[in-house]
Amino acid sequence: MARVTDHDLDPAVMRKQYRSQIVSEESLAEDPMRQFAQWFQQAADANLFEPNAMVVSTATADGRPSSRTVLLKQFDERGFVFFTNYDSRKGREIDENPHVALLFPWHPIARQVIVTGTAARIGRDETAAYFRSRPHGSQLGAWASEQSAVIASRAELDRRYAELADRYPEGEQVPVPPQWGGLRVTPDAVEFWQGHENRLHDRLRYVLEAAHPDKWRLERLCP
């Protein structure tokens, strides 16, 4: 087996030239959620693996950040929705500090979407409707896992799941866990990033006008 040299793993020499069409201001929609819908459809059409995967970054009240990948499950003019255990690390941090960032890393098409905004819990009716749409096993998993809590072993997790599977067999309605639900991120800025040659990327950002909270300003950023 060939030995991997340090040079082979040197990130300083890893680079790609992105070859894409220039994104003009005139080509974008009037508001970021419509533009996101267009790019999201294009990402799906490009057969990206889980185009709804996004990095969610949160922070404690004193500013210590953390990040993880979750799946976007809904979006509309109100913002972006994902589901989690409210007692998880991200859930607790959002309770302390609602300011969050989202990142959609669509590397195969040299695109990113970066969102900043505030997160808040959605209504229980909305949460219940989505929970009912989940596969039976995923419903049980939401009960079995005390997300982010220390657990003694994988065997303990499997034991919890098996007990729940006995209690709620396939076909029987699983109640919605009270500590589990949706979070909606309402954006105040959304950046659309398109990679180009020579690192001259397009960065076009929608920002809410302070004086007009329903009006978006579009601005271009240097790459």
What does this entry look like structurally?
It is a single chain. The chain has 223 residues and is an alpha+beta fold. Strands 1, 2, 3, 4, 5, 6, 7, 8 and 9 form a 9-stranded antiparallel beta sheet that branches. The chain is globular and about 55 Å long.
SSE topology:
Elements: H1 32-45, E1 53-59, E2 65-71, E3 74-76, E4 79-85, H2 89-96, E5 99-106, E6 111-121, H3 124-133, H4 136-144, H5 154-167, E7 180-194, E8 202-208, E9 216-221
Antiparallel strand pairs: 1-2, 1-5, 3-4, 4-7, 5-6, 6-7, 7-8, 8-9
Helix pairs in contact: 4-5
Largest sheet: 9 strands, antiparallel
- The gross shape turns out to be globular
The CA-CA distance between the termini, in Å, is 41 Å
> What is the count of helical runs?
5
The arrangement of helices and strands along the chain is HEEEEHEEHHHEEE
| Number of β-strand runs | 9
Report the helical percentage: 10-25%
Question: Unreliable stretches, pLDDT < 50, 5 or more residues?
Answer: none
What fraction strand? Answer: 25-35%
Rg estimate, integer Å: 21 Å
Mean pLDDT over the full residue set: 93
| Overall SS class | alpha+beta
